[in-house]
Amino acid sequence: MKIAIFGGSGRTGQHLVKQALEKGHQVVVLARNPDKLTINHPDLKIIQGDVKDLNAVQQTITEVEAVLSVLGPTSNQPIFDVSQGMTNILTPMEKDGVRRLVITAGAGVGDPNDEPKFFNHMMNFLLKMMAKNVLADMSQVVEMTRASDLDWTVVRLPMLTDDPKTGNVKVGYVGKGMGSRISRADIAEFMLSQLTDQTYIHKSPAISN
Asked: Cα–chain-centroid distance for residue 60?
């Protein structure tokens, strides 16, 4: 499958790119700084550009069958880069008929299936106090994704680790079967599995180790 990956030069994104190539996919990555992506492979195409540049995003999505995004805010400033970028991703996907979209968001972005406990409420309160704009940006991203006409899945995440891939991923919702952390390598594997698994289309599961 030919797929586009946004956020592929980041710490989680590099796992996603590497595993996608290992599974035989053709991969197109949009990166502001291509030098950060140290993977060389004949099935990897890197386009230099910014997700806020619609033309660069359009070029990245051209002729792909699915889009995966691990974009996230890099600061708590009220600039909302990720939601601006998601607008640029959704527009050409809907125009060109690219149906499958898998994105990540923090577990602080809620879902009707959640049953948050006291600890979850406390963590969300702290998140709103300390990272208000990060939460607002990603909440907008998820809202836009859910409102789209695409076959979307929002993969919500707890604390990320750099532990090795375990292959042991629990799928639940906040307060229901969700642990406190997950490895970046396991996130990548789960996201790639969604390319052929329709279980979580139009759903926002929370995953953990």
From this structure: 16
Number of Cβ within 10 Å of residue 46's Cβ equals: 19
Mean pLDDT over the full length of the chain: 94
| Residues 6+ positions from 55 with CB-CB distance below 8 Å | 49
Measure CA 104 to chain center. Answer: 3
Q: 153: closest CA among 64, 67, 93?
A: 67
Separation of CA 124 from chain center = 20
What is this structure's pTM? Answer: 0.95
CA 21/CA 199 separation, integer angstroms: 23
8 A C-beta contact, residue 169 and residue 182: yes
How far is the C-alpha of 173 from the C-alpha of 197, rounded, in Å?
18
Tens digit of each residue's pLDDT (9 = 90 or more) over 129-147: 677 888 899 999 999 999 9
Rounded distance between C-alpha atoms, residue 48 and residue 180, angstroms: 35
